[in-house]
Design goal:
The protein is an alpha+beta fold. The protein folds into 2 domains: 94 residues, no CATH class; 105 residues, Regulatory factor, effector binding domain (Multidrug-efflux Transporter 1 Regulator Bmrr, Chain A), CATH 3.20.80.10. It has a 9-stranded antiparallel beta sheet with strand order 1-2-7-9-8-4-5-3-6, covered by helices on one side. The longest helix has 17 residues.
């Protein structure tokens, strides 16, 4: 019942808050190991969150883990998504979607529990779409918000955070990522979401 009301009962990444206030935080994160999948949402009937099931099967959320040990891996939060580069379409391709002949990929990432210090410590995936990688230390400008992380809401949060960071003299070093901490069945007012923009 707690998850319906937004209780986060899984491991979340440790971080240090370097600056707080003005509607955002600057956070430093230590190195971590992540499982990620990059995909074209059209492979999942247009679902931008289609990679979730691939990663959930890797860690064993729905039964036997799809990794070589097989070893069940604890779920962590948040689930991180970022839009990737545009992929030029080759001809001839017949689709029902518009979009000017280009498609965007999405990368979804689960940070693995802290016990996995290096990529080789994590069980090897049996699904070749899942990649295990080491994330170095990271520094982000972060804004937290509740509700559903609809594209229009996220876009506004990104725009404001980017503007605030630039105003305050932070150098932005990449595109934003979206961090979502709750399962889909959590009531929207109780959901915790974050827009994170990497900074120097």
């Amino acid at each position: 019942m707690g998850m319906v009301f937004g209780k986060i009962a899984v491991e979340t990444p440790k971080h240090t808050v370097v600056k707080s206030g003005d509607g955002y935080e600057i956070r430093e994160y230590p190195p971590a190991v992540a499982a990620e999948v990059t995909y074209d949402p059209s492979d999942f009937k247009g679902d931008k969150d289609g990679g979730f099931m691939v990663l959930a099967k890797y860690i064993g959320v729905f039964g036997k883990p799809e990794n070589q040990k097989p070893e069940k891996i604890a779920m962590t939060a948040p689930v991180i998504t970022k839009e990737g580069e545009k992929i030029a379409m080759t001809a001839p391709v017949v689709t029902k979607e518009g979009g000017g002949g280009e498609k965007k990929t999405v990368t979804m990432q689960f940070l693995l529990p802290e016990m996995y210090k290096k990529a080789e410590d994590a069980p090897r995936p049996t699904d070749e779409r899942v990649v295990i990688k080491e994330e170095g230390g990271r520094k982000y400008g972060v804004v937290t918000f509740s509700g559903t992380a609809a594209e229009s809401v996220v876009s506004e949060k990104v725009k404001k955070l980017r503007s605030d960071l630039e105003r305050d003299g932070f150098k932005i070093t990449g595109d934003y990522v979206l961090a979502r901490y709750n399962p889909p069945w959590t009531l929207p007012p109780f959901k915790t979401n974050e827009v994170m923009i990497p900074v120097e």
